[in-house]
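Troubleshooting log. The previous structure file for this entry was overwritten by mistake, so regenerating from the original sequence record. Sequence copied from the archived sheet and checked twice against the printout by T.R.
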Amino acid sequence: MRQLVLVKLMVLLVVFGLSVGSAGEVVHPQDGPHADIRAEIDESGVQFGMMINLAFVDEIVEINRESPDALDVIEEPMLKDALEAFFRNQFLVEIDGVEVEPVFDAFEMIRPGLENLPLFPNSGMRGLLRAKLEITYPGKSLPRNVRFVWSVFPPDVLALPDSEGNFPPMTIQAQLSAEGRVSILSFTPTEPEQIWHGTGKTREERFEPVPDGAFASTTGTVRLPMFAFSLAITGLALLASGIAKSGKRFGWIAGGVFLFAVAPAFRTVGVVELAPIGGGQLTEAEARAIFEPLHANIYRAFDYEQRGEIYDALARSVSGDLLETLYDEIYRSLIMYDEGGAVSRVSAVRLMEVEVLSTGMIGEDDVPAFSVRAKWQVDGVVYHYGHSHERSNEYTAEYTVAQLTDGWRITGNRMLSQVRLDPETKAPPQFLDGEI
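Regenerated output below.
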C-alpha cells in the first residue's frame, strides 16, 4: 500500500489536480466559434493539428454554401481550398528568421452524431461540424526560435457583450510541445505575435544528474592490511632504535630499512575488515544532494508520450513495484489526448523543503539508505477544447531512498498532505472551486 501512494500523488496531479474542471468551466466544445490547435516543434520543423468547427470557419473564410447552417459533402473541397488559402496568407510561421510556406498534409470533416446537437443550442450544426487539418512548416534541423503571427479573431460569444451588443474578440490559444515541454501560445488582437525560443537541450540533457555510487561516508567496511602495517611499524622501530644507540647499530638500521621496504608486498596478507567511523551513514547534505535530483527527474516522465520513454524516465528515480505501477498510471493519463480528452502537463516544480529524517543501512544486503520529508509545489496546465487552465498544488510526503545496483532510487513513499493553491498567488485559495 505504501508504494501506491506516490502513484496516487502523481495521478491526482495529472488526472484530478489538472484535468477536472470546476462547475464554472467549459466541459465541452464551446457553443460558438471554436478551434482546438496543437503544435509540435522538432527537427523536421513545426507540425500543427487542428480541429476547427464550422462556426469558427465562417469567421475566418468565406465560402458559398447551399445551407448556411451546414456543409454538404460536395462542398468539402471548396472549404479545404479556402482554409489552405487562409493559413497560407493569414497565419505566419517564421523559423529562425525565415518565413516558411505550409505543407497541407491532411483534411477531413468530422461529423459527430446528431445526439450531440443539444450541446450547441446557439450555433447548432455549425458548432457540431468540425474540420480537421494537419499542416507542416518544414525545417532542416531543430529550430532555435519560431515566430507565430495570427491575424483573425472571431467574436467570443461566451463573453459579455458591450453596451452596443458587440462581443469582444476571442483569444486564440494553441498548445505547443517543444523540447519535451508543453506551453500555451495565446494570440490576441493586441498581441497577435508569439515567439518560441529553443534552449538547445535534448530531453536527455534536461535530466538532473544524480550522484553516482556511494559517498565516502557510506563505503561500508574498511579493509586494513594488518600484516603489512606490522612489518612497516617494526621496521620503523628498528630503524629509530639503531639510529638512537650510541655508536649506531647498523645491523638494526639495515633490518629496519629492509622490513619497511618489503612491507607493501604483503598488503594482501592478514587483511582485517573494520566498520567505518559513523556506521556508514550519509550526512544530511549528501542525502539532500541525492534526493533533490531524483525527485525532480520523476516529473521528466511527463515530457514523454511513448511507452518506452516514459518507463525509462521513471526508472531513473524509482524502483521495484513502485516503478511498474507508476508507469502504468502515468501512461494512461498521458494518452487522454488520443482519446479526445484533456491534455495535462507539468509546467514547473518547486521543491520548498527537504528534511532528512534518518540515514543508515537497510535490507539483507545492508545497503545505504535514508528517509526524508519533502514539501513541494507543482504548476500544471490543462488544455482541452481550445482552452487552457492553470493548476497549482502543494504536497508533503515522506520518502525512502536506497542505493541499489543501478544507483540511488526512491523505494518507498508516504503521502502526508496535498493542498490546492491559487495559480497566481501560490497560496491556498480563499474559496474552494469544488475540485479535489
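Residues 222-274 form one domain. Archived copy saved in two places this time.
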